Queue: 3 jobs
Job 1
Amino acid sequence: MTLVWDIKPAVRTQSALAVRDLVKRYQSAGPAAVDGISFDVSPGEILVLLGPNGAGKSTTLDIATTRLPATSGSVHVAGIDVAADPTGARAVFATVSQRPNLDRSVTVRQNLTMHGAYHGMPRRDRHARADELLDRFGLADRAGARTDTLSGGLGQRVMIARGLMHRPAVVFLDEPSTGLDVQSRLFLYDLLAGMAAEGAAVVVTTHDMAEAEQLAQRVAVIDHGRLLALDTPARLVRDVPGSSALSVTLAGAADAAAIAVALERLPGVRAVESTGDLEFRLHTDVPATDLLAALRDVVVLNGLTLQALTTETPSLQDVFLRLTGRELR
């Protein structure tokens, strides 16, 4: 299914979302829930905000979507200062909450048309737009149903469709896949990719590492109100020290302890773990491929043969744990 979002060309800017030195304190003498965060999101980009509970992700979104005032700093959505012109800002972004917030007293279609009316869409336009979105989201046969009869996945589709009624330039989604089954989750991922492909900036918060890796063009890791890292998933993973590993199985007559010492002396090897007779796991601070020539020298000099060689690469979870730690929150 081809999804066309028809993003408003008039509000496209170099940065669809610009966050500058953002600070939020709930008490003047207390710690900052958001502590000097700055980042940009371009039109057509999917940015995932990743962080533990209480890290500051949702507070950042609440400020960007005018729910909370900032203590200092600024947020501009499609060039509009959300503090100076919250009404204008709300006209160019959409928010999809983690919790269902559909109007249960009216139908699916009415949820969409009422949202269009709120944003000042003429009656003919909002009804045509509702029909278009219901069709694209596979909801046409549920248009007359009350929303309290829908499954979680269908309800999520309705919330996203409702948010897109006024053709927003930026879409904020807070934990959007929580509670969804596999099919609904994949449908959601296709929707988000479709929005970005048509020029919308998409900002997602999640705790799901696999989801972040699959969705994000860039990932922002936030903890204790600070931005700890911001880059593509591939670059974040590439730059993790000490997370690569090389498993080696050797054959021949040699003292395993002496071989372990020789392997530990290789440049870039942080530690060597013996996993069996002449079987070793090398924990490295460099890509495993950088060790192959030096490893071959150890094997040849000791009259051994290499039986098996496997590499383990770091993941986004390794990045996350390295930056935020393992303690429970």
Note: Residues 1-13 have pLDDT under 50 and may be disordered.
Job 2
Amino acid sequence: MLLLVSFIAENFYKNQVRATPESKSSDYTSWKKTIAHEDLPLALVDLEAFDSNLKKLTHMIKDSGKTIRLATKSLRIPALIHRALQSGLPFKGLMCYSIREADFLFSQGFNDFLIAYPSLQNADIDILGNLLLKDAKVALVIDDLQQIKIIAKSMEKYSKPLPLIIEFDTSIHWGQLHLGVRRSPIRSLISLKQLLLDSKHYPSIKVVGVMAYEAIVAGLTDKNPFKKLQNPLAFLIRRCAMQHIAKIRSEIPKIFSELGLTLEIFNGGGTGSFNLISNEKALTEVTFGSGLLCPHIFDYYSNISLKPAAYFALEATRSSDPYYVTCLGGGYIASGAADQDRLPKPVMPEGLKLLSAEGAGEVQTPLQLTSKNMIPLGSPIFFRHAKAGELAEHFNEVLLVNDDKSTYRVKTYRGLHQAFFVK
């Protein structure tokens, strides 16, 4: 059975599978020259690859009539957020991960925020109230009547009702088996309808839409070299889940219509599933972000073909044994379930791998050379992070590299003294 599923998976995506190009010695020589006078460690973004990924992703929804909401969590660099929004492509606004982040971005000239993660603190709700008074366009995701009651009470002193988005859980539940993430308790059309009815009793808030993010598909790799035995099953889960989710999402606009409510925003999407949702008529907007930088986790999806755009460089400072080299720093581990695919990946020069006994260390990262090419001490070694925006939490600045290899620096959130989950 497993072999059959594996055969189906391979053939279903045979026209979409594209291996991420391996680095070449010429690439390393070019990048080494580009950063020859830079201090290490260093984070950098290849703008040619960034722009290529931007065009490729937006092309997937070219004729769908949908707008795009950029996930700021996946960048955390205002200059790159500006670059995407000013591309002339059909962007509507931003999906933020923090109320305080939206407040900061509004001060930077951005607008139209969907805040995907709720907060019930009075100080945060006051920020939203004040944003509305400044004519900011903002909506907060919620999923529970208790949340509505708390938010509505805090919003009573403001003249404008706070727009809310209900998150619909697209996980799959078979008895005690739960497949997907644990976010929202709204898992049926009945529970969605009831929450919509309950929300009508609170004039200081207004439900304007739904977010039904297919996290079970967007977050599940099916070409993962560290989970080869699970890949066929992951492929099957993704395919079945996508059909189930599309069917559920097609019913949601009918609920709003039945209750005489306007569905202003119906949001879905993520880089890991972006090409699979382009034909869904129910969605009014779709979200991506991480794909613009293409961290190495996207090498492990059978339906994605993007260019690596973000790197960090460390200095090779030691060599404990022949064919081993040790870098200074490098412990930039991605969030999520701890596994090998959360570690950074050395990509330039070729022929390097992490040691299973040490991984990526906070102050040193040893590497084994799988080829016979020695690396002179003092040389840079380039890595890809497993995720996208999280790399920016480790650097105050990022070096942006143009097509002609000219460079300039820009600030990250951290470099602008903005750390929304750190006190």
Note: Residues 96 and 115 are 5 Å apart (CA to CA).
Job 3
Amino acid sequence: MAPSIDVRPCTADELGEGLTPIFHYFGRTPTEEGLRSLAPVLAPERLHAAFENGRAVGGAGAFTFTLTVPGGRAPAAGVTTVGVLPTHRRRGILRAMMRAQLDDVHERGEPVAYLWASEATIYGRFGYGVASLGGEMEIRRERGGFVDGVELAGETRLVSHEEALELVPPVYERVAEETPGMFARTRAWWETRTLNDPEWRRAGRGEMVRAVLEVEGEVEGYALYRLAPAFELGSSTGATVAIEALATTPEATAGIWRFLLDVDWMERVQASLLPIDHPLLLLLAEPRRARFTLGDALWVRLVDVKKALAARSFNEGKDVVLELTDAFCSWNAGRWLVSPSGVKRTRKRADIALDVSALASVYLGGFTFGELARAGRARELTNGGLEVGDKLFYTDRAPWCPEIF
């Protein structure tokens, strides 16, 4: 890195400057409106920027989150707005920002950092590992029928922004508290992020529509969506674009998706950021018609392995000893004994050897030690060690986050 580059947290007056590098890649510059929406959720001191002669040439931010992990919740850094101007590539600036950011996360006592990777090759060298897969689908309405016997619940109605701000968050929280990968949304987040609907977010589609599903007077589900009307030879070729649809019961889940699949005038329904175990795949009579495609989703970095593992629960069973390497955060390296009752350093013989990025893939329950070993990302050191580890770490719910932050 050139000696004239200074990596440090931004001040309140430098928030816009620190965001300029990442905005470059969206073809925009930070506006006053955009900064006003970010300020309540992104503290300036959590945006590390690389300055050259007073001008930001790189930036890396972090939201302050409470992350759901299997069996609990943990403080976490939601890494965001990472970018270096193309004029300053290959100078070590990204590495310096990652160093400053992860040191800061560690000092704050946040044991986990996680993100959505715009380019998957960037973050592995800093100890991040792919922790979940996500899907997207597009299904024509006439192929959106459910299997026989599906029970639907409730009545759906459209609500205003103000009503949604009161009715929707409790549903989200009930789902989030039991779904690894989701984070607790503050009111400021709902106001400035989830329910905020600036023109640039619409991408040529309609304004955000908010629907809630009520069962016996209680809101049990909701859908945020847009309509993208289009016509060809007088017939509709438009789409209902689901932004987010959540519900608290199987019946409410079926009900809110039945609503989305039945919106008139639209030819098809599109949805992205779906979990790989989404109930819709078992509700549809013709699941292949959904054209469900997969890609990597969340990437996790265990910043403090002991605290991160202690924050989640483990199944009853034998202990497992992990031989962990961590080149970027050396304080994590060594042998860790993981048991249903806790986590501690040990000198016992290791059962599994792996890198911290591989352990991150297992942490939320998205992958198994066995899968890592078959990919050459973990080594079994004692007979049966992989099986013991997988039983200990097993969770029956795929990690998921319904929004890119």
Note: The longest strand covers residues 55-69.
